[in-house]
């Protein structure tokens, strides 16, 4: 499950993520991180389900880190898309491709939310959530 973590000045300097990984033994991939002295945001992929996932969520809450579940990273307006392909090659993880009809295919599982495609699109038809 992809989660967005929002750190506050009170917890951004603490090793919350590594403590939770050690305590739960759950693998967590960091997809994106923006950390400043007084705040921070991370996009992570938690490789757990059921009770283990609940435990991870609860530990983030106890540490004062706000957690938002990310079910959709971005949306492409396929009506206004001109299939130019400008968003395909800049994507660092090949989350966007084109099919045989040049239609854009987006793979939510691969996307790390870097926004590069948003800036690359000349039509402004890619919207991040
Ligand atoms: S946000 Fe980044 S990773 Fe996701 S599709 Fe766009 S370029 Fe690729
Ligand atoms: S860059 Fe924009 S207009 Fe071009 S293919 Fe990608 S989504 Fe469509």
Characterise the protein shown here.
The chain is of the alpha+beta class and 129 residues long. It has two domains: 2-70, ACT domain (Alpha-Beta Plaits, 2-Layer Sandwich), CATH 3.30.70.260; 73-129, Alpha-Beta Plaits (2-Layer Sandwich), CATH 3.30.70.20. It has three helices and eight strands. A four-stranded antiparallel sheet has the order 2-3-1-4, covered by helices on one side. Strands 5-8 form a two-stranded antiparallel sheet. It has a two-stranded antiparallel sheet with strand order 6-7. Strand 6 (96-98) and strand 7 (104-106) form a beta hairpin. The relative contact order is 0.19. The structure holds iron/sulfur cluster (2 copies). Residues 76, 81-87, 104, 120-121, 123, 125-126 line the site of one iron/sulfur cluster (SF4).
- What's the alpha carbon Rg, rounded to whole Å? 17 Å
The largest sheet has its strands arranged as 2-3-1-4
The arrangement of helices and strands along the chain is EHEEHEEEEHE
**Tally of discrete structural domains:** 2
User: Per CATH, which architecture of the largest domain?
Assistant: 2-Layer Sandwich
Look at the structure and name the CATH superfamily of the largest domain.
Answer: ACT domain
CATH-assigned fold name of the largest domain: Alpha-Beta Plaits
Total beta-strand segments: 8
Strand content: 25-35%
- Anisotropy-based shape: elongated
Q: Return the CATH class of the largest domain.
A: Alpha Beta
Number of helices: 3
Helix content: 10-25%
The end-to-end span amounts to: 16 Å
What about the largest sheet? 4 strands, antiparallel
What bound compounds does this protein have?
iron/sulfur cluster
Low-pLDDT ranges: none
Class inferred from helices and paired strands: alpha+beta
Average pLDDT, to the nearest integer?
Answer: 94
